[in-house]
Amino acid sequence: DAGVIQSPRHEVTEMGQEVTLRCKPISGHNSLFWYRQTMMRGLELLIYFNNNVPIDDSGMPEDRFSAKMPNASFSTLKIQPSEPRDSAVYFCATTGNSATNEKLFFGSGTQLSVL
Amino acid sequence: GQQLNQSPQSMFIQEGEDVSMNCTSSSIFNTWLWYKQEPGEGPVLLIALYKAGELTSNGRLTAQFGITRKDSFLNISASIPSDVGIYFCAGPGNSGNTPLVFGKGTRLSVIA
Q: Exposed, middle or buried, B2 (CB in 10 Å: 0-12/13-18/19+)?
């Protein structure tokens, strides 16, 4: 298996633009998590899905952030409009055992820079 | 909410030295996990601990689940340059089926 695949690896955009980050989970994994990593705050959970259904989005910082999982093999995280403070590394992670959620498999992340 | 505090925040060591880092919490955890993040990649699970007092090894890495269930330790023996990275401790949230809580990590640099 290729693991969790995220795209793009790097994104540079201007303030106010829409940004869409993409994630393809490992086949058969039924839980998907979006994390944001910054030096100041470390790894922050933004939202997670079980069986394509959003379970907890309390970590989503503002209404500018939205996430979807239209099917078991694809998820997006959208920021509209983007702001410089959104600059961070965004990770998608998946697990096949939603009961424990302990062995998370992370993608390589998307490095987002908002100018 | 639950928080995990890791120390030290960063370490600079000479190749060949042993490394110790720890993770503490104000609340009890029933599982402790240690992840490593290499530069430009996502975190990868190194060791999982399930029982208070448990000591588990993975090559040169050894981790312990504290007796109080409020702390855990990770040791690396005879460090090598590829040990560079950020080491995170993590544990399940308050309920049985909630996402992991991560510490802020210990950044390890190894000087050859």
A: middle
Q: With 90 as the cut, is the pLDDT of residue A97 above it?
A: no
Cα A64 to Cα A18, A59, B6, B22, B77, distances in angstroms? 9, 13, 31, 36, 46
Contact at CB, B48 and A103, closer than 8 angstroms: yes
| Residue range B74-78: mean pLDDT, rounded | 97
Count interface pairs A-B at CB distance under 8 A. Answer: 53
Both tokens assigned to B5: 């505090």
The residues in B 61-80 lying below 8 A from A, measured between CB atoms, are none
B87: nearest CA in chain A? A42
Q: How far apart are CA B94 and CA A86, in angstroms?
A: 28
Distance, in Å, from the CA atom of B1 to the CA atom of A97, rounded to the nearest integer, reads 23
Which region, left, alpha or beta, applies to residue A86 given φ > 0 means left and ψ of -120 to 50 means alpha? alpha
- pLDDT of A99 > 90? The answer is no
Count of CB atoms situated within 10 Å of the CB of A15 = 12
Backbone angles phi and psi of B83, in degrees to 5: -80, -10
Q: pLDDT confidence of B17, banded at 50, 70, 90?
A: very high
